[in-house]
Write a structure and sequence with these properties.
Elements (H helix, E strand, L loop, with lengths): L12 E5 L4 H12 L3 E6 L2 H13 L4 E5 L7 H13 L4 E4 L17 H25 L5 E5 L12 H21 L5 E7 L5 H7 L3 H8 L11 H12 L10 E4 L6
Parallel strand pairs: 1-2, 1-4, 2-3, 4-5, 5-6, 6-7
Helix pairs in contact: 1-2, 1-8, 3-4, 4-5
Length: 257
C-alpha cells in the first residue's frame, strides 16, 4: 500500500452526529470523498436529506437519521439501524455539541439546569456515543470527538462548555486505554474559530463581522473552515493514524492557548 492510500477509507462505514451542518457536514462529505459510506445523525430532516444527496453524489452510500443525541435511546437505535443496513460500523464521530440557546452564561449566575444541559450536550452525549459505538464496532475501529480549543482557555460566558470540553480530553485518554486491546483508537479534534451557522447565531454576527473580529488574532491570518477540521478527522479515521490514540489536535490556525 502506498502512503497516499493510507489516507483512504474505502470499505468503511462511518457515523457522524451533528452532521447536517457546519463541521459535521464537512466531515461527512470528506469521509465520502475518501471512500467511506456515511450515516449522518442530526435533528433537521431537510439538512439530512441534502447531506445524504451530497454523499451519494460522491459515489458512496448515504443515510440520514433524524434523532436528538440528548434523547438517550436515540443513539443506540440509530447505531443498530446502521449495523442492520450497512453490515458494520467502523468509524464514530461524536460531533454534535455546542450551546442550545446560543447565549453566554456567566458561571457566577448560571442556573443549575443550564449547567447540567451543557455537560449533557458536550460530554455525556459523546461518552454515550463512544460507548454505544464501541459495543457495535469491529476491532480496529475509530472513535473521534469534536471538542474545542475552549477546553484549555478561559471562556467567560461559556465556562460550563469549556469545562465539558476539557473533560472530554480526560475521558478520551481513558477510553483510549480501555479500548486499546481491541485496537479501537479514540481521539479528539479541537477546532478554533470556524464560521458556522451556530457561531453566527451565538455572536449575532455575519461572516464579514466574524472575519473582522478574529482574523487578526489568528497567526495564520484567517478563521477556519469545516474542511480544515474534516482533514484532521480523515487523518484520525484513516489507517495512517493506526498507532495514535488518546490524543487531541488543535485545528486553530496557530491561535495561542
Amino acid at each position: 500500500m502506498g502512503m497516499h492510500e493510507e489516507f483512504r477509507l474505502d470499505g468503511k462505514v462511518a457515523v457522524v452526529t451533528g452532521g447536517g451542518r457546519g463541521i459535521g457536514r464537512g466531515i461527512a462529505l470528506a469521509f465520502a470523498e475518501c471512500g467511506a459510506d456515511v450515516v449522518v445523525i442530526a435533528r433537521r430532516q431537510n439538512d439530512l436529506d441534502e447531506v445524504t444527496r451530497e454523499i451519494e453524489a460522491r459515489g458512496q452510500r448515504g443515510l440520514g437519521i433524524s434523532a436528538d443525541v440528548m434523547d438517550w435511546e436515540s443513539v443506540p437505535r440509530a447505531l443498530d439501524r446502521v449495523v442492520d443496513e450497512f453490515g458494520q460500523l467502523d468509524i464514530m464521530v461524536n460531533n454534535a455539541g455546542g450551546n442550545l440557546d446560543r447565549k453566554a452564561h456567566s458561571l457566577r449566575k448560571m442556573a443549575l439546569e443550564k449547567f447540567d444541559e451543557q455537560l449533557d450536550l458536550n460530554i455525556k452525549t459523546k461518552w454515550w456515543g463512544s460507548q454505544q459505538a464501541a459495543e457495535r464496532m469491529v476491532d480496529g475501529g475509530r472513535i473521534i470527538s469534536t471538542i474545542s480549543i475552549a477546553a484549555h482557555r478561559p471562556s467567560p460566558g461559556f465556562g460550563a462548555y469549556s469545562a465539558a470540553n476539557m473533560g472530554m480530553i480526560s475521558l478520551t485518554r481513558t477510553l483510549a486505554v480501555e479500548l486499546a486491546p481491541r485496537r479501537i483508537t479514540v481521539n479528539c479534534i479541537a477546532p478554533g474559530v470556524v464560521i458556522t451557522e451556530m457561531l453566527k447565531e451565538t455572536m449575532g454576527a455575519d461572516d464579514e463581522a466574524i472575519h473582522e473580529a478574529f482574523d487578526a488574532q489568528i497567526p495564520l491570518g484567517r478563521t477556519g473552515t469545516p474542511e480544515d477540521c474534516a482533514a484532521a478527522a480523515v487523518f484520525f479515521a484513516s489507517p495512517a493514524a493506526r498507532w495514535i490514540t488518546g490524543q487531541f489536535i488543535d485545528v486553530a490556525g496557530g491561535q495561542p492557548l
